[in-house]
Amino acid sequence: MRAHTLIAAALATMVSAHGSHGSGAHGGTYGEEARSDYPNWMTRHMAEEHGMGTFDAQSFFTLHDFDSDGVWEREEMQRMYGLMDPSNRDVSHDRREAAYRELLALLDTSGDNLVSRDEFAAFVADGRTLPDLGFGPGHHGDDEYEYEVHHWNKYHNEDTKLEDLTHPEDIEHFKKHEELEDAEERQQAMDKIAIIEANIPAKFLRVQH
């Protein structure tokens, strides 16, 4: 993505221009301007999170079988609903567990606390769909993926100029890049510092016998 090559130069530009867009069309959190006319949560999730307008039970299941072991486990179901994403960091443990139990009640016909590919296929074949549990569209990619899908692809393209990268989402995203780079540089500097035994307080030295 071209956005990655604009990081260094864009930081100064974005900081100086911050505020020019306010809380208008580009403000708020990712996906704020998402459509509300999807027929169900699964369709919304696949369209907004995966860019897929059509899908079947097998493709949906495979996309969310994150460890490719043929079943959905607790963490995978919670992740599918965006409960591992920072946007849902304030959701309590009890609410996360309640979501998991609600999904099991719908899908787990064998009672093993897992959802198999066949169980999900039978659920969809019966004309049913996964419910909207109130956690949003189900963000479950890393920071780069979420930024690209929910902001860059909507408002920018390969012709984007530095002066266009002034949306709050741009500033937040590239600020994280800068913080990570600063932390990495500090760690590299620390790694280069030689340990001089004479400068270590005696109480921290192991007594040699």
From TrEMBL:
Source taxon at top rank? Eukaryota
Stored InterPro entries: EF-hand-dom_pair, EF_Hand_1_Ca_BS, EF_hand_dom, Nucleobindin
Q: Does the keyword Ligase apply?
A: no
Provide the GO MF annotations for this entry. Answer: calcium ion binding
Give the signal peptide, or none: 1-19
Q: Where is the EF-hand domain?
A: 95-130
- List the SUPFAM superfamilies: EF-hand
GO terms for cellular component = endoplasmic reticulum-Golgi intermediate compartment
Ordered alphabetically, the record's keywords are:
Calcium, Signal
Entry protein name: EF-hand-like domain protein
**Organism taxonomic ancestry:** Eukaryota, Fungi, Dikarya, Ascomycota, Pezizomycotina
